[in-house]
Specification:
Length: 277
């Protein structure tokens, strides 16, 4: 008679089910622990921030300044620094920088934290190059060596620039070219103007004025330089020279028939004369 297979006990699958339930419980407990840890960390950070605000270690105690400062007023810097409040960790350095850039003569301010309680401000001054003439404003505007317009008091003699808003850097670049060209005849521009139509005009340090127009500016100025020694009338302080011609120039307020520079005697003025080269 064949043997009947033994029936399996009902509790044989219990260990596997028990293991699965335990695993789910472990995962749930782990996730709960992580959540509790995150909440505790958030609360701890908030508590630390509050303690930092009231702690004698974290508040800003002083502001120091470094840099080559020849024109920046130390008292004005001190007044600006007196308004700096807050905590070393949370103070926005860009906001501090903006405060000091409002001080006269400050072009840029680089702010660093020096723990435990100091902000160090590295100051870059504007280097004045010229005055900026603005007919619509009475502000004392200057142009620095970067071609940037800024406001500051200064009595020193400087060339005068003028032009449409936003063109100071273009005027500066052209001024430097004009200086190089005019150095051949020992003349220097005292003023450079750019009109709204982008036409150039130069006033020389001897009082003469040159109208260069909008195009071929360098070529027209070269024409003036080459003619300077040959036409003595160009050397007069009241010369008004219009170079907006293809191959010549027009002179106003001078005697173009003079054969040599006039010193100590007046020349006979004429309304206008044109010189062909």
């Amino acid at each position: 008679m064949a043997r009947q297979p033994k029936p399996q006990p009902r509790h044989a699958a219990a260990p596997a089910a028990h293991f699965t339930r335990n695993r789910v419980v472990v995962i749930a407990v782990s996730m709960l622990a992580m959540l509790i840890a995150a909440v505790l960390a958030w609360l701890a950070m908030g508590s630390f921030s509050k303690r930092a605000d009231s702690s004698p270690i974290f508040p800003i105690r002083q502001v120091t300044f470094v840099g080559d400062m020849q024109r920046v007023d130390a008292a004005e810097l001190a007044r600006a620094a007196s308004g700096i409040r807050g905590n070393m960790l949370e103070t926005n350095l860009n906001d501090v920088k903006a405060v000091f850039k409002q001080v006269h003569w400050v072009r840029n301010a680089d702010v660093r934290r020096r723990f435990p309680a100091t902000l160090e401000v590295s100051v870059e001054e504007h280097r004045p190059f010229a005055r900026w003439k603005d007919d619509e404003s009475e502000r004392r505007l200057l142009v620095n060596t970067f071609g940037e317009v800024f406001e500051a008091p200064l009595d020193a003699p400087l060339p005068v620039f003028s032009g449409p808003e936003g063109t100071a850097s273009d005027v500066l670049a052209s001024y430097e070219k004009f200086v190089a060209q005019l150095a051949v005849i020992s003349q220097t521009p005292s003023a450079v103007a750019l009109s709204a139509r982008r036409a150039w005009q130069i006033r020389l340090d001897n009082g003469a004025s040159l109208a260069l127009g909008r195009t071929e500016v360098s070529e027209r100025l070269d024409r003036y330089v080459k003619a300077y020694a040959a036409i003595p009338a160009l050397q007069l302080a009241n010369a008004q020279v219009d170079l907006r011609y293809q191959s010549g120039m027009a002179l106003k307020g001078t005697d173009v028939k003079a054969s040599k520079p006039v010193t100590g005697t007046a020349t006979k003025p004429v309304k206008k004369a044109t010189v062909k080269l």
